Structures
1.
Amino acid sequence: MTTPRQRYRRGRLAAAFGGLAAATLAVTLAVPAAAAGSTLQAAAAESGRYFGTAIAASRLNDGTYTTIANREFNMITAENEMKMDAMQPSRGQFNWSSGDRIVNWARQNGKQVRGHALAWHSQQPGWMQNMSGSQLRTAMLDHVTQVASYYRGKIYAWDVVNEAFADGSSGARRDSNLQRTGNDWIEAAFRAARAADPGAKLCYNDYNTDNWQHAKTQAVYNMVKDFKARGVPIDCVGFQAHFNSGNPVPSNYHTTLQNFADLGVDVQITELDIEGSGSSQAQQYQGVVQACLSVARCTGITVWGVRDTDSWRASGTPLLFDGSGNKKAAYTSVLNQLNQGGTPVPNPGNPTPTPTQPGTTPTPTPTQNPGTGGCTATYSEGQKWNDRFNGTVTIRANTAISGWSSTVTVRQPQRIIATWNGSPTWDSSGNVMTMRPSGSGALAAGQTVSFGFTVQHNGNWTWPTLTCSAS
Ligand code: G2I
């Protein structure tokens, strides 16, 4: 008997050996990094997924909060700061400050950002609530264009339109001032977003769309199918996934995610929280993670807050950390499930490094930097996807050392979007990560230790350069 995780690891190693004879030694050294991830982001990254959280700007000066957020998550959503009322409080006057705080914190810590949300019937600024007709349509499109343009290049995916369908059995659009501007308001918003930031994935995001049998799920599915058929630029569907005893995780969740993915869009779990406690809550979390991991185009999971006390429904204790920042049973079940591995996120694009400039090759020279003479850092390739690749750095102590640090420099427009097995810090450019050991860095002469990371390459497959210094 082999577990899916073992099968996945074997396939991954076989692929690595097949394509990389010259790097055989390095690949061998990379094996320890394939060990179980010890954080949510590390465990998710091994199958090519992200693990994210919603962040509130007002909590960024809370050290417990930022320590957990930084350690566990590599995709950040602003819980409220990028909504229409926050971004454009007065017509034509944009307030970027709170949104920027979150985006800057994420980028400085090597994380990606999901933008939330460009157009929504709720959280509209007062001036917009009073508008209708073509005046409102113009104002909405202008908002989408301005906000998506301002953050162009910094957003992994935008929730372009949020919660546009009615609850219940009608399968109809939700009545709202935006809907009353005409049924095509959603596709108009997507087209404006694409024009403003062609590099961001564009998502439709909603709740109560988890159960495949529900009319609302079917209605959203039919809209996405129609958009794909008519070339409306949609790339992904977000499932908010706010669950409780009255709205439990449906047994057909996997079917829902797979059916949407089969339309040719990514699916993402965007605002996960599950009210409850103990093993019952843990089991439901595990089921959600398992459903995502079994769908190749389910690219990541975001929980809607860090600790229970940070939640919009704190009394339901719906998150993975308690109010003191302790890991709950739900955390452990999510981590364990992520470490079971899953269907790797597919790699439809270029699986091998290609020269990024005529006449240059992507420097497959293992970078060796003797630093203080005490250690050497060696790069080895990990899994590759069309938009990112994993790498491992192996630190070798040349003599007995009591500590080490290693810099990893990537080239623009590359960005490191996930790390594991170490404590990273970043320079202001975001291109240079300095990795230090999470615990003691003491190594005996000849001993090795490895850390890993994911590089979003943006078309540049060049290997990072390394240094190592020992103390
Ligand atoms: O309602 C849960 C989520 C459903 N999907 C869309 C999400 O955007 C939504 O998030 C929640 C936030 O978690 C709450 O924090 O959206 C609420 C409404 O926008 C947020 O609540 C608002 C309160 O209504 C405001 O009174 C408060 O000033 O949070 C604000 C900031 O704390």
2.
Amino acid sequence: MKPIAVVLGTRPEIIKMSPIISLLAEKKLPFYIIHTNQHYSKELDQIFFEQLKLPQPDYSLEVGSGTHGEQTGKMLQRIEKILIENPPSFTLVQGDTNTTVAGALTSSKLHIPVGHVEAGLRSHDRKMPEEINRIITDHISDLCFVPTEKQRHILLNEGIPDQKIVITGNTIVDAVYRNIKMMNMEILSRLGLKEKQYFLATIHRQENTDDPVRLEEIFSAITFAGKKYNLPVIAPLHPRTVKKLKEYQIEVKAPIKVIPPVGYFEFLALLKHTRLVITDSGGLQEESCILGVPCVTARENTERPETIEVGANILGGVRKKTLLSAIDAMFHVEPNWKNPFGDGKSSNRIIQKILAFLQKHNKI
Ligand code: UD1
Ligand code: UDP
């Protein structure tokens, strides 16, 4: 059997692919990792390889940052070269980043079957770069691994045939279940935090960071909420956000405490014990829902509606007033919902389906 190519490039892809990679290794299945290095700062990249005990990438493409076209273009050229030199039996991509779409596009043009992990999510907002990446990736994939029945319906409505769709759950559940026992409580004492007596905030979406009015409103809401409830707010900020706050001269004030992004074990500890999370992250909406932590999403839409339906999450919009009412609404919520994203065995389902697909097409 020719190897399976696992393409990844950013923090959430490393985390959500990690249980699949570990299982491929445990099952002694041949695979290699292509890392585009879309993320390259240690705290967005290497720390996760170390903590999650992942093999180092076989190919590091050193693409780095750039405009969407620049970044995606470099990825297309560099991924294609590898897929030609070392043809895999199957390519696996995850999520909705520029890396995801580049991995899927190069592969499908070379007639190498592609599987999309976390397929079928839609915010129905085409201004988001991620929405474009999701749509393209789903439509050129041979197997769409969707988290729930909901995404199956979305894809069926877009004309994707049912036989390409596999309901697997989301591999973030596998990642959380595998790693929660490793969470590092030391970070709470280091930051002087008490359980359930602080807020956690992360903001990094392009639509929020690259709009000075929105960014200012969001941070102003978070500051106000911290003051109102007399709680510190820990904000492990993505470098993109730090850069933009500086550029727009938005001063982040107490009780917000900005820290650099932290490792997964530290982040799980911060998330599990926060009173409430305020975020525009996709992965955090899921993880907070899985861990029983109320979430306020600083966006006007979400591609994770399950979190709202079960009562774990609320859309706070991107204005101070709306965000504050959302925080008030979630502050006293009893976290008694069920995790809608699966049983933590998604990775195994994905691998079994790939093997069956390859067998059917006489590739093994
Ligand atoms: C990307 C994804 C986004 C995902 C996020 C996860 C796309 C279009 N966006 O956004 O969907 O939610 O990753 O975190 O693919 N930077 C660093 N160090 C790094 C990487 C980036 O300092 O290792 C800075 C650079 O200034 C860069 C900026 O962050 O210009 C944005 O990075 P980029 O990869 O373009 O997008 P993200 O915002 O990280
Ligand atoms: N995360 C982390 N350290 C941090 C912030 C986030 O390990 O300082 C993890 C978080 O647990 C989640 C993932 O990074 O699994 C989310 O990544 P991000 O918010 O950057 O991307 P998105 O999910 O929005 O694409």
